[in-house]
Amino acid sequence: MAFARKILLHTPISDERLLDDFVEQCLKDGVEIVAVFGPGCARIEDLIDWIVVGDGSDDGRFLLTSSHPRDSLEDVMNMLGVEMASHASVQEVRL
Known about the structure:
Layout: E1 6-10, H1 18-29, E2 33-37, H2 41-53, E3 64-68, H3 73-79, E4 90-94
Parallel strand pairs: 1-2, 1-4, 2-3
């Protein structure tokens, strides 16, 4: 199953080693944005960014990321352009 175009990644994550495969799948599926929400989200966003950049040899790799250490879930969903009553256009992911 392919990921939605907008992803809300909840932290903490169970194992940071899962991020590599997660990011590669996001790139493959054409995910537009990964918003990271929860404890330690800024660090996880940085890790995702480094995975996307890799060694810098492929400038076609792009994934918009954001982290929300002080925002409410409602604020993050609003930023993603989603009404709280309908999460249809955002896929919530827990690793």
